[in-house]
Amino acid sequence: MSVRELVVLGTASQVPTRHRNHNGYVLRWDGEGILFDPGEGTQRQMLRAGVAAHDLHRICVTHFHGDHSLGLAGVIQRINLDRVPHDVTAHYPRSGKRFFDRLRYATAYRETVQLVEAPVAEDGVLAATPSYSLEARRLSHPVESFGYRLVEPDGRRMLPERLFAHGIKGPDVGRIQREGALGGVSLGDVSEVRRGQRFAFVMDTRLCEGVYALAEGCDMLVIESTFLDEDIQLAEEHGHLTAGQAARVARDAGVRHLVLTHFSQRYTQPEEFERQARASGFEGELTVAHDLLRVPVPKRR
Description:
Elements: E1 4-10, E2 24-29, E3 32-36, H1 42-49, E4 58-60, H2 66-69, H3 72-81, E5 88-91, H4 97-104, E6 115-117, E7 124-128, E8 133-138, E9 146-151, E10 155-158, H5 160-165, H6 171-179, E11 181-182, E12 185-186, E13 191-194, E14 198-202, H7 209-215, E15 220-224, H8 232-238, H9 243-253, E16 257-261, H10 271-279, E17 285-288, E18 294-296
Parallel strand pairs: 3-4, 4-5, 5-6, 14-15, 15-16, 16-17
Antiparallel strand pairs: 1-2, 1-18, 2-3, 7-8, 8-9, 9-14, 10-13, 11-12
Helix pairs in contact: 3-4, 9-10
């Protein structure tokens, strides 16, 4: 059975705390695992969360600040130590290739796995698989940063009442799905479009066009909310979002499930992030993330 869920490994921003590890997020998507922004300590958090190196198929780095990338060295070496039996693809800003190279070869180890580097230089589709397409959009941060978005292809939902009305049953249901028509009845006559699921990952950024483009129509949006609204000036100066800003993006984009994360160590009351998000008008499902949390992607509409 396919599983689509977010596994939260760490939720701290620049400085980890006693209760929050540096960033790290694994999206499980139909047998594939995508690791986003592995900060320091990610390998240990994977162990605690029950995520194995074998589960990883892609690594997506938004930018090269340490809390989003210092865990790369350990994760890459673990992938090789465990002899992961498939290729692993790494996406990261091309301008940071020198940092990726340093982390990839931080110490001596034996390379046993094909790590395919696919750096990002501009907005667009990075990969297309039968299960999803992976897109990137430029964000606004003091160093070059990209957010990521998965889009499942649209499918068809069969409508039993229309199948019955046209006398289509048994093996003929599969036949019309495969062939697109049967005895003068088209697939469109007995089905409707089933919209594919959409997931977006938005880290360190000010409000910008890329944020809105990534969030548009998402079933799940994972987005930084480093600051509370009273510190909006600090957020702007350092290239970050507040809880209220993130929630308004989600509200305006029609997001179904909003996951707030990447919290500054200055705050000790996580419920305040939820309060400000609700005060900003977001009415969908809302999660204020904590380490080792598992969040299911909402079921298809």
